[in-house]
Write a structure and sequence with these properties.
Helix content: 25-40%
Low-confidence stretches: none
Strand content: 15-25%
Shape: globular
Largest sheet: 9 strands, mixed
Number of strands: 25
Distance between the termini: 60 Å
CATH topology of one domain: Rossmann fold
CATH class of one domain: Alpha Beta
Strand order of the largest sheet: 2-1-11-10-12-13-14-15-16
Mean pLDDT: 94
């Protein structure tokens, strides 16, 4: 096991192998099987490129060979920050095949977050794309000046790679495919119980934590969710959410689509106009989206002339899809099956079945997908609540982490003594086993599926010389579920506008989706009886102000 990652106890690991959850295959070996099964079939398509399974197999090997020549070896870490293109899938398979561990940065991450990932994981390489609206090549220059470990930047896409290696040059420098394949096979990871990738936590306390996922546990997720979605080689899976998110990555996502011989269509433009054109052209059947997109697409479809009849399944997760919104989606697309998904990159995934009655699909967030998933619903003292009562969800199982990467102090609070992960989600369980998600106990803002740590944003704002105190809270939003509102106390004689605050925060390199969208300048922050900032009162205050504005 990678140093800094925590393995499952031997008795549970043996059980998960015996019961078939872990089947002893690496994702590298599985990817080769998928490509060999139907080599002539089209595997991937984006706005510029399409690849057959045979072409995907060869290109992944050639890139892997180029990365070996750069000096990357297992278990080196690489920060991957690429848009939704064919290159994303090629890069991931190349890394998996040589045991180099990807860290999936999101498109919106900037200097603040990338510095953190590089330092926490001692990453040796950083993958970026040229030719984007934001200059990621310049960002790479910037972060390299501070990193103690970053040796290589690899630039994907058609733009200028600057002083760095281009992915295309690495691929083109491997003309002898049999010899390249032999070298890559020799470097392949051998232990399916070792870490395959590092996913990002929602960042509920400061910057995101890194989540170790093994070949064994993630392969189970890909396999099981593909079964639950009934994926076949006839399906076309649309990846519209950022591909590094756990949801579109492997639940079942593009990995699940490849595992069943289907096709994957990738787009970085999730506007209804762009998506509907792609759905019509490629005959898309399946996609994974967040509630905000489901609502926007449903509304846009009512006036669209595009042929959207090919779509058979929408998986909706990231935040709770409210019953009224679920019914609207089903009314707009009568041929569609809706699947609610409640899960986390840390592990546990709950889904509604494709055979569940409509009221179950509309009203619940599904059941745990593995019989070995263990779930407790507890009160603030850690005692299990009566059946049907609400409480915090604790869980462990064959694909739920046992600890965050290099986070000993945090892990002591995030897990129970017997290894249950404290999710921070407040749920209640119905007699059928379905869960209803009712809220969170963690101080986190869920903006359309993107988790924002209030503490992280507060720390950036508090660094402003005019700010003496700050509290960031969630305010309700009909499309995104929540947006961030900053309550700020300023030093005497100072003033501040929202635009000024955002400008200051942008200069500090924070991701755009974390920026507050409302500013309240106040004389003081309310306190609880024990002297802590009373965020419940602040949430009530901003909710009341929003309601008053709407009423007027």
């Amino acid at each position: 096991m990678l140093s800094g990652a925590i393995p499952w106890p031997d008795d549970l690991a043996e059980r998960y192998r015996r019961e078939g959850y872990w089947q002893g295959q690496t994702l590298a070996a599985l990817s080769r099987e998928w490509c060999a099964r139907t080599p002539a079939r089209r595997a991937l398509v984006d706005a510029e490129t399409e690849l057959s399974y045979a072409e995907l197999d060869a290109r992944a090997d050639r890139l892997a060979g180029g990365l070996l020549e750069l000096g990357l070896r297992a278990p080196d870490r690489v920060v991957v920050q690429l848009p939704n293109t064919v290159d994303y899938v090629v890069a991931l398979l190349a890394l998996l095949r040589i045991g180099v561990i990807p860290i999936f940065a999101l498109p919106g991450h900037r200097r603040h977050e990338i510095d953190h990932f590089l330092a926490l994981a001692d990453a040796k390489a950083y993958f970026v794309a040229a030719g984007q609206r934001f200059d990621f090549v310049e960002l790479a220059r910037d972060v390299q000046t501070r990193s103690q470990t970053l040796e290589h930047v690899v630039v994907f896409g058609e733009g200028d790679a600057g002083p760095f290696a281009s992915a295309a040059s690495l691929i083109d420098a491997q003309p002898d495919e049999p010899a390249t394949r032999e070298r890559v096979l020799a470097a392949a990871p051998a232990d399916p119980g070792d870490v395959a990738m590092l996913l990002l936590s929602g960042g509920t306390s400061g910057l995101p934590k890194l989540i170790p996922r093994t070949h064994d546990d993630y392969a189970y997720c890909v396999r099981r969710t593909a079964e639950l979605c009934r994926l076949t080689e006839d399906d076309v899976t649309l990846v519209a959410l950022p591909a590094g998110h756990n949801f579109p990555l492997g639940h079942p996502g593009f990995l699940g689509a490849l595992s069943t011989g289907g096709q994957v269509a990738l787009t970085a433009d999730h506007s209804a106009e762009a998506v509907f054109e792609l759905v019509e052209r490629e005959r898309v059947t399946v996609t994974a989206i967040v509630p905000a997109l489901a609502m926007r697409w449903s509304e846009a479809a009512q006036g669209s002339q595009r042929d959207l009849s090919s779509m058979r399944l929408w998986q909706v997760g990231g935040t709770r899809l409210l019953p009224a919104a679920a019914r609207e989606v089903l009314g707009t697309f009568p041929q569609l099956t809706l699947q609610q998904v409640f899960g986390m990159a840390e592990g546990l995934v709950c889904v509604t079945s494709l055979d569940d009655p409509e009221d179950v699909v509309v009203e619940t967030q599904g059941r745990p997908m593995a019989a070995a998933d263990e779930c407790r619903i507890v009160d603030p003292d850690g005692r299990e609540v009566p059946e049907g009562s609400s409480g915090e969800l604790h869980t462990r199982g064959p694909y739920t982490l046992r600890g965050y990467f290099r986070a000993t102090e945090h892990n002591a609070n995030a897990f129970t003594a017997d290894g249950f992960y404290k999710t921070g989600d407040v749920v209640r369980r119905l007699p059928s086993g379905h869960l209803v998600v009712e809220g969170r106990v963690k101080d986190m803002i869920n903006r359309g599926g993107e988790k924002i740590s209030a503490e992280e944003v507060e720390n950036v704002i508090l660094s402003h010389e005019a700010v003496s105190a700050v509290a960031v809270v969630a305010m309700p939003d009909p499309m995104l579920a929540e947006r961030a509102c900053a309550y700020v106390v300023l030093d005497e004689g100072h003033a501040m506008t929202l635009d000024e605050l955002i400008g200051y925060m942008r200069e500090r390199g924070i991701a755009s989706f974390k920026l507050p969208e409302r500013l309240e300048v106040v004389d003081e922050l309310p306190l609880t009886r024990v002297g802590k900032i009373d965020k419940a009162r602040l949430r009530e205050d901003v909710t009341r102000k929003l309601a008053a504005t709407e009423a007027s």
